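Sequence, please.
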């Protein structure tokens, strides 16, 4: 089961009292149970917060961390039918570290379960040469369904979410492995001339 692939888990909210922590806690535990090593990239981390004002040193720190990673999972809420602005700012601060990496998206929100944020991010990551998994995971009203540790309270819903994660994790690992092999086999950027 475990293959030790190291991925980044990017949090989508910096709001005080964010629900993001609950959904991220569930996602991190699940990904670890499927054998991934998870490096949490939190835009509210004091080291990364200056990325929001395009601080060069903070962006360099972010890029150094991302250079070591083989894929990403974004855990995002939906804000006005899209991803929150601070998540977009963090994404935009980095270029080649996204290239040729798979990106899985876990979303949450009201009745939409954050799916409009997911669809918005597909367009963004297409421009960044990343591969967004077809499979997604979404939670509607997680503030009613998860405790502060990220435990899903209803066992039937917990089973359904874990079943969705089993497919998500399998496909994420497939793309992580396939793209890692492809990066070794040939350069992504065509030679000049
Ligand atoms: C500015 C703002 C816009 C929002 N827009 C939406 C929306 O378009 N669709 C939705 O389902 N929920 C929307 N919500 C509700 C959020 O999904 C919900 O508050 C969620 O908990 C936000 O994530 P966070 O607590 O981790 O910051 C919005 C919330 C805020 C603060």
């Amino acid at each position: 089961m475990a293959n030790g692939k190291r991925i980044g888990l990017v949090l989508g909210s910096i709001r005080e009292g964010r629900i993001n922590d609950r959904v991220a806690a569930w996602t991190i535990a699940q990904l670890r149970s499927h054998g991934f090593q998870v490096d949490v990239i939190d835009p509210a981390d004091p080291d990364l917060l200056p990325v929001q004002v395009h601080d060069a040193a903070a962006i360099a720190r972010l890029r150094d961390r991302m250079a070591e990673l083989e894929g990403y999972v974004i855990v995002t809420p939906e804000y006005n039918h899209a991803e929150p602005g601070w998540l977009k700012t963090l994404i935009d601060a980095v270029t080649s570290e996204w290239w040729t990496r798979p990106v899985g998206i876990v979303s949450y929100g009201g009745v939409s379960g954050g799916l409009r944020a997911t669809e918005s991010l597909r367009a963004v990551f297409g421009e960044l040469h990343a591969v967004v998994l077809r499979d997604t995971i979404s939670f509607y009203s997680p503030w009613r369904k998860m405790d502060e540790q990220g435990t899903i309270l209803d066992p039937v819903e917990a089973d359904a979410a874990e079943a969705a994660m089993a497919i998500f994790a399998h496909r994420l690992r497939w793309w992580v492995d396939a793209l890692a092999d492809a990066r070794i086999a040939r350069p992504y950027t065509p030679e000049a001339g």
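Residues 13, 15, 18-20, 77-81, 109-110, 112, 143 surround flavin mononucleotide (CB under 6 Å).
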